[in-house]
Amino acid sequence: FFFFNDTATTEIYTEQIVGSVRCVQETVVEELCKDYQSKLPPKIRKDEGKIVYDAQKQAEMYYKDSLLICLDQEVQKFNKLLERISSSLESLQKALKGEVVMSLDLDKMYMSLLNNQVPALWSKVAYPSLKTLASWFQELIQKVEFFRKWLAGHRPNSFWISAFFFPQGFLTSVLQNYARKTKIPIDALSFSFDFFNFTDSENVQSSPEDGCLVHGLFIEGCRFDLHSVRLADSLPGVMYSQAPIIVFVPVSYTHLRAHETPEHLVCRLLLEKKKKTYQFT
To answer: Which residues pair with 214 in a beta bridge?
Structure first.
């Protein structure tokens, strides 16, 4: 009689299967790294735009338009994110080839790429988002292009507020511009809102003299009826609906309270369902 060690045979087969799976996974991850690396936009160079390096001239520009400070800060944040993505993709490819040690962070990034999740290495220096990696990366490309065009002198008529790392800073800059123009303390200012009857920012032909136009927001629990220009019940099966172009008009708190009516509704502006909420009237 001949006896076989079933346990040992099973272990060999298991090791072979695991090794094959690991080999396939590494090939997939390597291809993903190359794909993302080829699509990653270059860092935004300040010399592409109108932000000057002379300290005195830069201070004058910033005083005339606080939005330039906001733009400068956003560009710095996006460049930091682009640098992190580029360096980590290169490091992971080297680790897969055995040229460098596969660190814990790179191993987590490896698994995130396999699961179509944004790696923690990236999200630590990125804006809050709940999107899958593929959608997140495509949106990143669009956001970088938005700020690149703005820096090049093509100031948008309507601002994509979802593109900002820090949208509160952008809105503060809008109030700061109005405060300097009217000599009203910024602490005494807030926003009043008006709404267009369309959602496509490409249809916006001009920007307001005071305040700004904003797009990129969505409504949960109801919808905006573009015909009546009022809130209405959600359509069956639709949880989120796109908000129209919104006019953010700087006004004093005194003016706001004087013109407040029962029809005014307090809505909360949520950033990607995170715990932090920002409330506007």
So the answer is: 159, 246
By C-alpha distance, which of 192, 206, 179, 189 is closest to 254? 189
199: how many CB neighbours lie within 10 A of its CB? 16
Q: Tell me the per-residue pLDDT of 240-274, one tens digit each, with 9 for 90 and over.
A: 899 999 999 999 988 888 877 766 666 777 766 55
184-204 pLDDT, tens digit each: 999 999 999 999 999 999 999
Q: Of 201, 129, 193, nearest to 158 (Cα)?
A: 201
CA angle 168, 240, 141 (to 5 degrees): 55
- Please, are residues 170 and 159 in contact by the beta-carbon 8 Å criterion? yes
Cβ atoms of 58 and 67 within 8 Å: the answer is no
Residue 40: both structure tokens together: 């990653």
CB atoms within 10 A of CB 9: 10
SS (H, E, C) 209-257: CCCEEEECCEEECCEEECCCCEEECCCCCCCEEECCCEEEEEEEHHHHH
Q: Which of 161, 96, 157, 166 is nearest to 128 (CA)?
A: 166
